[in-house]
Design goal:
Protein name: Nodulation protein NfeD
InterPro entries: ClpP/crotonase-like_dom_sf, Membrane_assoc_protease, NA-bd_OB-fold, NfeD-like_C, NfeD1b_N, NfeD_membrane
Mean pLDDT: 81
Strand content: 15-25%
Order of helices and strands: HEHEHEHEEHHEHEHEHHHHHHHEEEEE
Helix content: 40-55%
Main location: membrane
Radius of gyration: 40 Å
Structural class: alpha/beta
Membrane topology: Multi-pass membrane protein
Subcellular location: Membrane
Largest sheet: 8 strands, mixed
Number of helices: 15
C-alpha cells in the first residue's frame, strides 16, 4: 500500500515537472503584432499591411495593434486597406499616436477598437484631388458614403464621420461649424457622446497593460527592403519623375552613337517602375506582357519600313504603364508629363546639340548652305566691282546695263537713272549688283 502511494506521488511529481514547460509554452503562445502606419497612405502601404496581417493570422495572434500617425493619402488605397482590415481575422486595435487625418481617419474607423495618445487627433477627411482642390461631386459623394460605412462597420455614430468629410455638417460644439471639417482631439473622441475612442493612453506600453497584453509576445513588423522600395517608387510624386527620366533617356539614346548612359537610365527607370508596381500588387503579369510586346514592336521598327510597328509598340508601352497604376487617370496624367518633358528635351537637343548627334542629322536637315561653308546660290561676281557700264534701260531703280557687251541686271542706289547713262558698279551681293551714275567716261564703257 505504501509502495503504491509512493509510486502515485512520484508519478504526480514527474507529471508536474513535465507539464510546467508545456504550460509556460502555452502561455507564451499569446502573440500581439505591432504594425506601424506612419507615412502616406498609398498602394505600397496596402501591400505591406497585407503581408503583416497575413503573418499575424498564420501565427494565431491574439490582436494586431495598428499604430497610426499619418496625414492621409489616396482614397482608393485607403479603401483597399479598409477592406483588408474587415477581412482580417485577429482583432485590430488602432492606436492613434498623434494623427489620423483624412485617409488615416478612414482606416482607424475600420479598427475594432480605437485608442489615442493625449495629443492624438482624428478627422479632416475631405476628398482632395491631386491638384489640392476638393474632389468633384461624384467622387465627393462616394467618399462621404465610404466614411459613413467605415463608422458603421465599427458601430460608431456615422454623423461624426460624415462631419469629418463634409463641411456643411454643423458640429459647432466641436469647432466644426458650417464651412469647417470636424477634427476630434483625444478628449473629444473619448467623450461618451462621440464614442470615437475607447480610451487615452500615454504610451504603447501603457496600451498593452490596459489591454492585458503586458505578458504577451510583441511581434514588430517592419517594411522589407523591397516593400520600402516599392512604396517609394509608387509614390505619386516619384512616378512621373521615373517616366520622365525614361522618356528623356530614350530620346538622348536615339540621338547619340552606340548604347550608353541615357539608354541605361531609360531602361533602369522603366524596370524600377514596373518592379515597384508589381511588388505593390498594382501591376499583374499581363501588364508586363503588354509592355514586352510594345518593346518588341519598337525594336522591329528598326528593320521594317512604314512606321506601323513603332506606332503600335509605343501605344502598347503607354497602355502597359497606364494599366500598372491603381488610378488610370493619374497614370495618364503622369504619362503626359513624361511626354512633355521628352518633347522639351528634344527641342533643346535640336537647338543646342543637334549638329553633334549623328541620328538627328538623318532625321532633320541640320546643314546650312551658307557662304562660309562654301555654298552660293549664284556666282558672286566681285571681279566687276568698280567697273563702268552704260544703261540699256532706265533704272527705276532696277534695270539692265551693258558691261563690255554683256547684259547685266542691276539696281541703282535708289535714284532714277535714265537710259543711255554711264554708271559705275559700287556693290556686289551675290546676284544683286548695285550701281550709281558716273559722270566721267571710263575705259570700260
Amino acid at each position: 500500500m505504501h509502495k503504491m502511494i509512493g509510486k502515485l506521488l512520484l508519478f504526480i511529481l514527474v507529471f508536474s515537472v513535465i507539464a510546467v514547460p508545456f504550460s509556460n509554452a502555452e502561455a507564451a503562445e499569446d502573440k500581439v503584432y505591432h504594425v506601424k502606419l506612419d507615412e502616406a497612405v498609398e498602394r505600397g502601404l496596402h501591400a505591406y499591411l497585407k503581408r503583416a496581417f497575413k503573418e499575424a493570422e498564420e501565427a494565431n495572434a491574439k490582436a494586431i495593434i495598428l499604430e497610426i500617425d499619418t496625414l492621409g493619402g489616396f482614397t482608393d488605397a485607403a479603401g483597399q486597406i479598409g477592406k483588408l482590415m474587415d477581412e482580417t481575422e485577429p482583432e485590430i486595435i488602432a492606436y492613434i499616436n498623434y494623427r489620423a487625418i483624412s485617409a488615416g481617419a478612414f482606416i482607424a474607423l475600420h479598427a475594432d477598437e480605437i485608442y489615442m495618445s493625449p495629443n492624438g487627433k482624428i478627422g479632416a477627411a475631405q476628398a482632395i484631388v491631386g491638384s489640392g482642390n476638393a474632389a468633384d461631386e461624384k467622387a465627393d459623394s462616394f467618399w462621404k458614403a465610404e466614411m459613413i460605412s467605415a463608422a458603421n462597420s465599427s458601430k460608431r455614430n456615422p454623423e461624426f464621420a460624415l462631419a469629418m468629410a463634409d463641411d456643411t455638417v454643423d458640429k459647432s460644439e466641436y469647432r466644426a461649424g458650417i464651412g469647417k471639417l470636424l477634427t476630434l482631439t483625444a478628449q473629444e473622441a473619448a467623450d461618451e457622446k462621440v464614442g470615437y475612442s475607447e480610451g487615452t493612453v500615454a504610451s504603447f506600453d501603457e496600451l498593452l497593460q490596459l489591454l492585458g497584453f503586458e505578458k504577451a509576445e510583441i511581434v514588430k513588423t517592419d517594411l522589407t527592403f523591397t516593400e520600402s522600395l516599392a512604396r517609394y517608387i509608387t509614390h505619386p510624386v516619384v512616378v512621373p519623375i521615373l517616366l520622365s527620366i525614361a522618356g528623356l533617356g530614350l530620346i538622348l539614346e536615339l540621338y547619340s552613337p552606340g548604347f550608353g548612359v541615357p539608354g541605361t537610365m531609360a531602361i533602369s527607370s522603366l524596370l524600377l517602375f514596373f518592379f515597384g508596381h508589381l511588388i505593390a500588387g498594382l501591376a499583374g503579369y499581363e501588364t508586363m506582357i503588354v509592355f514586352l510586346i510594345g518593346i518588341t514592336l519598337v525594336i522591329l521598327e528598326f528593320f521594317l519600313a512604314g512606321g506601323i510597328a513603332g506606332a503600335l509598340g509605343a501605344i502598347a508601352i503607354v497602355a502597359s504603364i497606364i494599366m500598372a497604376g491603381a488610378n488610370p487617370a493619374y497614370m495618364a496624367y503622369s504619362v503626359l508629363i513624361a511626354i512633355a518633358v521628352a518633347a522639351s528635351g528634344m527641342v533643346i537637343i535640336m537647338k543646342f546639340f543637334g549638329r553633334k548627334l549623328h541620328l538627328l542629322n538623318k532625321m532633320v536637315l541640320m546643314d546650312a548652305t551658307d557662304t562660309e561653308s562654301g555654298y552660293v546660290s549664284n556666282v558672286n561676281r566681285i571681279d566687276i566691282l568698280g567697273k563702268r557700264g552704260l544703261t540699256i534701260t532706265p533704272l527705276r531703280p532696277s534695270g539692265t546695263i551693258d558691261l563690255n557687251g554683256e547684259r547685266v541686271d542691276v539696281v541703282s542706289q535708289g535714284s532714277y537713272i535714265d537710259k543711255g547713262k554711264h554708271v559705275i558698279i559700287v556693290k556686289v551681293e551675290g546676284s544683286r549688283i548695285v550701281v550709281r551714275e558716273s559722270y566721267e567716261k571710263g575705259e570700260n564703257e
